[in-house]
From TrEMBL:
The keyword Hydrolase applies. Keywords: Carbohydrate metabolism, Glycosidase, Hydrolase, Polysaccharide degradation, Signal, Xylan degradation. Residues 517-569 form the Bacterial Ig-like domain. InterPro entries: Big_4, Glyco_hydro_43, Glyco_hydro_beta-prop_sf, Glycosyl_Hydrlase_43_Enz, Ig-like_fold, Ig-like_OmpL47-like. It comes from Dactylosporangium maewongense. Belongs to the glycosyl hydrolase 43 family. This is Bacterial Ig-like domain-containing protein. Residues 1-27 form the signal peptide.
Length: 1019
């Protein structure tokens, strides 16, 4: 098993390595230890991974790889295989054989290292066969991984090479183009079935009983939802099961929200070769990014083996094998594997400390979070020296906004006074790409008095370094919500993303905490969830986590002492006396309980909540006993809970609600009904931007169905946010991006939307006109960006967001990029720079192309530019091409990918410049011919005006004279607008007539004024 492609895997071939001829591989010295629990090897002395169980006689063997990476190394360093053996899983007694075999000593044709996941099975001849992925020394294939086959008379060796070369590779027994690792094998009734593969590609091939001679040809396997790697094949009662590491990541995935994590999913079939039907998940993501199943029956019990990062000093590349029971639901057909319960069950860390973030609900501005990140990492209190993307919350999408935020919400008011934050970056500040520390940031708290967000008072500073925790202290505040607002780093036109590995919020420390006495009934093991904590004149009910109370502790009336950790109190645990009373002690009780209804959720402004609200209905009785509490929401049915001290009522749905409740004690005394109004608006407003292309401005409207729109905000390019009061005009003739968002009266802030005002191209165009074009492409990899083509940046070491690239599992022979302009421009040349991470001839990765050419759109077809210069393919310098000038609104570069004869490498470009020498455009006019003629009719003077529409579409014509005006609507092409104006005199002095013609020219509404003079006339 190895990571997703985004993790760099260095040097699979160790060039020049000297090895001696391979011989039998013997087991290293074994040793026996006892450890009941998981991981099996938990002390960090040996990290094991990729478990493959085998039952041989009365023993269970778990074959593993050996993780040997350093604590900060993000790569698999695996040089050997070993095994763990036990005769009784529950006893915890294991014998460890740490080094059964190494690739280079077992197989003379293999290199050292990359001892990945293998499996041992017993063949029909009674011998043991070990299918092992290794790197083939002299392979010419694009991927050198192959599967070797070793044989032994014993489960612990010695092992010898059974074939003398690969059993499976990209060359044998037939060509394939997948990475040949992760074999799983089933031997049944003289048939041998082998599945193998990774990166979503799975193959199956049957072999003869000799374990090495193929039967038929390899086939691709389908039907496995989210298959990524690590298949495991087994049978139970005539049904075949195929478990695997799944990775259909996403916010609604039943497997995992982050694409670096994997669940263990499975499918079933009535045949060992399929077809397969997906059945669901059996193991949720573990603490390591990878996951690898091995499922087997031993001593009448089914088990799953897997690996985690839970050993001392463990990590994603320092994994350790675990084992847990698999239970079955045989009421279904086919029988279903129940979800595995990982042991030991993780318990809350009750270590006293000031940090309270671990108990907060997390919300973020970029929900849903991009699948390479994991929002849970923000407050999991795990900080790795060299984290991978799922070890942090991040915002990178390739189109990053100017601002992002993280918010913590607690159910109870907390007193806070500090913060520790750990930023992560892969690009420097000011780059405007990748992930960089924010340009600036701040902390705000929810002011419980005003119902508004406010900056924390007197912050010590907001450092933005990315080496360790950045500390901020401030004057203590009492709040239920805290948020960090990050202004993203920018280069003036684009923004970097933000990433945080951990954010701690530190509680203010009281002088001391004294827990009050507790009264419980016989059999009641739940203790109060809060204790009073005093800060000067203010007392808060703060969560407390008690040491477990057993049934024996409360079996009869008596007194005992319990210890607990108060959230945020770092000085140590607190102790409380507990009195156990009889529930039947009700004689003389005539006092009704008292009720308190307390809402918790994401508080908004104006008394609104911006989330589902939990209302805790708590009752107190003077006798200290438990009660029956009835509650309901609005006009719904009443819910009853008994015997309890409190019950939680969930209120959801936008709008105004009412929670009502009563409490009845054991003596039958019922409280008066208590009510609480709850207003919820959890939906952000929606804004719409409309671009007036002719006027070059953006108008914005917004709506909100529940609390109403409070205001609209906008920003032009990288400018500050301002309140919207009217249409937003472009400040100059350049292209501009207008961001806008709406805020409702509950405090929901819409995720910013954008509208683009195109550059004004009416003037002369010269130099590089790429940045004012709209780029498109045949395909763009999800981690690259098509806008990198014309971001006017040419960094020496570009980040992935600064590259247009086409890497995918299937790469065609040609790709293209295209620029579109709002009007035709006279173009004279272009230049672009390629990028690579692989050599030519590999057919993989990203390589220099074989060639490329430029084409322009003539209005009907793509034509090659004329008299083009040489088309270079350099990845270190711009490849400049001049050509005969052509006037066009579209230019395309078609790139021919390099290949190995079978597959093609991807292509990538860091920047594409296009040069213009364009005089601009003459201001658009509406073509109308105006004729003016003074006339005499019956001794009276008249002025005759005629305007002919010479345009290709209808125009509106307005005639203005000294003797009156006349308007003509929608004069069709070729028609005349005519009017004779009476002068009411016998003569006409010389003058001027103005005709205004309005029509559409070049997609714009244009009004052209035309004047015509006339002379004197006497009748």
């Amino acid at each position: 098993m190895r990571p997703l492609r985004m993790i760099a895997v260095a040097g699979l071939v160790l060039a020049g390595l000297l090895v001696s001829p391979a011989g039998p591989a013997h087991a290293a010295d074994s040793y026996t230890f006892t450890h009941q629990g998981n991981p099996i090897l938990a002390d960090g002395s040996y990290y094991s991974a990729d478990p493959a169980p085998l039952v041989a006689g009365d023993q269970l063997y778990i074959y593993t790889g050996h993780d040997q990476a350093g604590p900060t190394t993000n790569d698999f360093q695996m040089n050997e295989w070993g095994t763990l053996r036990t005769g009784d899983v529950q006893s915890g007694q294991w014998t460890h054989f740490p080094s059964l075999a190494r690739p280079e000593t077992l197989f003379s044709w293999a290199t050292a290292g990359r001892a990945y996941a293998g499996q041992v099975v017993q063949g029909p001849d009674g011998r043991y066969y070990w299918y092992l992925p290794v790197s083939e020394r002299n392979s010419t294939a694009a991927d050198k991984f192959a599967i070797g086959l070793a044989v032994s008379d014993s489960p612990t060796g010695p092992w010898t090479d059974y074939i003398g070369g690969p059993l499976i590779s990209q060359r044998v027994p037939a060509a394939n183009d997948i990475q040949n690792i992760d074999p799983t094998v089933l031997v049944e009734n003289g048939h041998v079935y082998v599945y193998w593969g990774t990166f979503g590609q799975l193959r199956v091939l049957e072999y003869q009983p000799d374990m090495k001679t193929p039967v038929g040809t390899q086939k691709s396997v389908t039907g496995l939802t989210g298959f990524f790697e690590a298949p495991w094949l087994f049978a139970r009662n005539g049904t075949y099961y195929l478990a695997y590491a799944g990775n259909n990541a996403g916010p609604t995935s039943s497997c995992t929200p982050a694409n670096y994590h994997a669940c263990i999913a499975y499918a079933t079939s009535s045949s060992p070769t399929g077809p397969w039907t997906y059945r669901g998940t059996v193991l949720t993501p573990v603490s390591s990014t990878t996951s690898h199943p091995g499922i087997i029956q031993f001593n009448g019990q089914w088990y799953i083996t897997y690996h985690t990062a839970d050993a001392v000093g463990g990590g994603h590349f320092r994994r350790s094998v675990a084992i847990d029971k698999v239970e079955w639901d045989d009421t279904q057909s086919p029988p279903r594997m129940k979800m595995v319960v990982q042991t030991p069950v993780k318990q809350r860390d009750r270590t006293p400390r000031a940090n309270i973030a671990q108990e907060a609900k997390v919300t973020v501005s970029n929900d849903p979070v991009p699948t390479q990140y994991w929002v849970k990492s923000l407050n999991d209190e795990i900080v790795r020296a060299n984290p991978l993307p799922p070890d942090m919350w991040g915002t990178w999408t390739g189109n990053n906004p100017a601002q992002q935020w993280v918010q913590y919400t607690w159910d109870q008011p907390m007193r806070v006074s500090g913060s520790q934050i750990d930023f992560w970056n892969d690009q420097p500040q000011g780059s405007g790409v990748g992930v960089a520390a924010p340009a600036k940031w701040k902390i705000q708290y929810w002011n419980l008095g005003t119902g508004q967000w406010a900056d924390v008072p007197n912050p010590s500073g907001y450092p933005t370094a990315t080496a360790g925790f950045q500390n901020t202290t401030f004057d203590p505040v009492t709040t239920t919500q805290v948020r960090a607002i990050f202004d993203a780093s920018t280069n003036g036109s684009t923004y970097s993303a933000v990433a945080v590995e951990e954010w701690k919020v530190l509680a203010a420390q009281p002088a001391s905490v004294t827990a009050p006495a507790i009264t419980v009934e016989v059999g009641e093991t739940d203790l109060p969830g809060t204790v009073p904590v005093t800060f000067g004149a203010e007392t808060l009910q703060v969560p407390v986590y008690w040491d477990p109370v057993t049934a024996a502790d409360v079996a009869e009336p008596h007194q005992f002492t319990v210890k607990g950790s108060v959230l945020g109190y770092a000085a140590g645990q607190v102790s409380a006396p507990v009195t156990v009373v009889s529930p039947g002690d009700t004689a003389g009780d005539v006092t009704a309980p008292t009720l308190t209804l307390t809402p918790s959720g994401s508080a908004g402004t104006g008394g609104w909540f911006r989330s589902t609200v939990k209302v805790r209905v708590a009752a107190v009785d003077d006798r200290g006993g438990r009660m029956t509490i009835e509650s309901k929401v609005d006009g719904g049915a009443a819910a009853s809970a008994s015997p309890v001290r409190y019950t939680d009522v969930t209120v959801s749905g936008d709008g105004q609600h009412t929670v009502s409740a009563t409490a009845t004690d054991r003596a039958g005394n019922t409280s008066a009904a208590a009510t609480l109004p709850v207003r919820i608006d959890a939906t952000a407003p929606v804004s719409t931007g409309t671009v007036d292309a002719a006027a070059r401005r953006v108008s914005v409207t917004a709506s909100d169905a529940t609390s109403g729109v409070a205001r609209i905000e906008y920003a032009v390019d990288t400018g500050a946010w301002a309140t919207y009061t009217g249409a937003i005009a472009a400040p100059d003739s350049n292209k501009h991006t207008v961001s806008f968002r709406a805020l409702d009266n509950a405090g929901n802030l819409e995720t910013a939307r954008t509208a683009t005002i195109a550059a004004d191209l009416s003037g002369p165009m010269s130099g590089n006109v790429g940045p004012i074009a709209t780029p498109t492409a045949s395909y763009t990899a999800s981690w690259n960006s098509v806008t990198a083509l014309n971001d006017n940046a040419d960094p020496a070491n570009p980040a992935q967001a600064q590259i247009w690239g086409t890497w995918s599992g299937t790469r065609p022979a040609t790709q293209w990029v295209q620029y579109d302009w709002a009007r035709p421009i006279r173009l004279t040349g272009a230049e672009l720079k390629f990028w690579k991470d692989s050599n030519r001839g590999t057919g993989d990765g990203v390589a220099e192309p074989d060639g490329w050419k430029l084409q322009y759109w003539d209005g009907a077809a793509w034509l090659d530019v004329a008299a083009a210069g040489a088309y270079g393919t350099s990845t270190t310098a711009f490849n400049t091409v001049s050509f005969t000038p052509v006037t066009t609104s579209r230019l395309r570069a078609t790139v021919n990918a390099n290949g190995n004869g079978t597959t093609y490498s991807a292509v990538a470009v860091t920047e594409w410049r296009v040069f213009a020498d364009d005089p601009g455009t003459v201001p658009a006019t509406v073509p109308v011919t105006v004729t003016v003629q003074p006339r005499c009719i019956a001794g009276k003077a008249y002025l005759a005006v005629q305007a002919r529409n010479d345009h290709d579409s209808a125009v509106d014509i307005a005639v203005e004279t000294a003797y009156g005006d006349r308007a003509f609507a929608a004069v069709v092409p070729g028609a005349n607008a005519y009017q004779s104006f009476a002068v009411r005199a016998g003569s006409i002095p010389a003058g001027t007539v103005t005709v205004r013609a309005t029509g559409t020219v070049g997609g714009k509404d244009v009004t052209t004024p035309i004047t015509a003079d006339y002379g004197t006339l006497t009748c």
